[in-house]
Amino acid sequence: MNPEDASTDAHDEVPQRCGLVAIVGRPNVGKSTLLNALVGQKVSITSNKAQTTRHRITGIRTVDEAQFVFVDTPGFQTRHGAALNRTLNRTVQGVLADVDAVLFVVEAGRFGLDDAKVLGLLQNEGLQGKPVFLIANKLDTVQRRSDLAPWLKGMQERHNFAEFVPLSAQKKADMDKLLAILKPYLPEQHWFYEEDALTDRSERFLASEIIREKLFRLTGDELPYASTVVIDKFEEEGNLRRIAASIVVERDAHKGMIIGAGGERLKRIGSESRQELETLMDAKVFLELWVKVRSGWADDEEHLRSYGYE
């Protein structure tokens, strides 16, 4: 190759972009669903129960020269003062210190007290000029689009948002549009992860999250939020995973709710968890589940640390 051609190729090469993007909002506003849609695969669990997301979950999407590192955060807790809630809020605040941009997720056309508290957190954290995007999620639930104009005007008066993005996380076209809007805001720097990476979380962590999702979904509103899942054993033998996990609750009555009549509910939690884990890990999974009572664990800092809360 002619040396002049080589220098031309190097000059024409588009520089890589990479940045951390936090997804924040009140509980149950659709943050985890949005993360999964942006990544293109499930990396964060979802349910209608508040506090489904309790950890910092990283989802990675690489498109052309840009790598988006999305950080799904727990919904900022405003209603309870237990140690668990304080830990969740510290996780949110810790994430905000590191990011290059923030997606502030609200339901399109709505803005309540809990939304206002999260927005106040963003303003108080002193994001030093970092762009905050107003993500109006669940656009498909808005009956009249004309109602959005006065709502948007009110939102713009609350904060100087970098961009306003109305969307539905169920629509791939909306996800592509959001990625295109975000791309210029990512710093020019080398990617943090391999091109095909989807998350920085281990299979062991994902196993505990999937079990916890099934627990929340199959107990409905019966089970209080003070329940968690601890992986006691995770063994990998080629294409086989042997997993033993404990579901930890605060009271004997909660244990009965999870086990169900004749053990049927616990069997279903185990069966649905195993099926999803086999799909996620592309491996055969043997799963054992136990239910243990640990009174007051959610308000005990030592217990929280031992169960993996940051």
TrEMBL record:
Residues 211-295 form the KH type-2 domain. GO terms for biological process: ribosomal small subunit assembly. Residues 25-32 are annotated as: G1. Residues 137-140 are annotated as: G4. Residues 51-55 are annotated as: G2. Residues 72-75 are annotated as: G3. GO terms for molecular function: GTP binding; GTPase activity; ribosomal small subunit binding; small ribosomal subunit rRNA binding. SUPFAM superfamilies: P-loop containing nucleoside triphosphate hydrolases (SSF52540), Prokaryotic type KH domain (KH-domain type II) (SSF54814). An essential GTPase that binds both GDP and GTP, with rapid nucleotide exchange. Plays a role in 16S rRNA processing and 30S ribosomal subunit biogenesis and possibly also in cell cycle regulation and energy metabolism. Monomer. This is GTPase Era.
